Structure to design on (139 residues):
């Protein structure tokens, strides 16, 4: 697969994620390895399936916007924004009604069949917790 095919695969996955569509997980191989998610999330596709299901339930209007998307060889790097309204319990936090707008960086390594075999994730957790009112803003 080439650069454009990987970009198209990422954009399709984001469209499916934004639609809360279970077909989102078809972007991954069954044994894909996940890195950078909360310690309580198993580093597997099933682990992120549970996490993202909880996010979709807690933030019914949640969506991801791609700010930057770069591809080199078999690695796609996406700078994304995660936006939504906290309307349900999430990771032990009661609904706040607060809006979130959080930056994240995701690296995706594609296998020869064009599916994601490995994912690294970094999110601004301080911004998330601050926007949800679960911790004070940094000085």
């Amino acid at each position: 697969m080439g650069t454009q095919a990987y970009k198209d695969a990422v954009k399709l996955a984001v469209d499916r994620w934004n639609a809360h569509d279970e077909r989102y997980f078809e972007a991954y191989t069954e044994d894909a390895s996940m890195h950078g998610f909360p310690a309580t999330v198993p580093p597997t596709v099933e682990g992120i399936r549970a996490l993202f299901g909880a996010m979709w339930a807690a933030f019914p209007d949640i969506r991801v916007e791609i700010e930057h998307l770069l591809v080199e060889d078999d690695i796609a790097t996406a700078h994304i924004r995660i936006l939504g309204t906290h309307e349900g319990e999430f990771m032990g936090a009661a609904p706040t009604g607060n809006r979130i707008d959080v930056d994240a960086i995701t690296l995706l390594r594609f296998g020869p069949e064009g599916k994601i075999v490995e994912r690294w994730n970094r999110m601004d957790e301080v911004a998330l917790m601050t926007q949800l009112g679960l911790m004070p803003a940094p000085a």
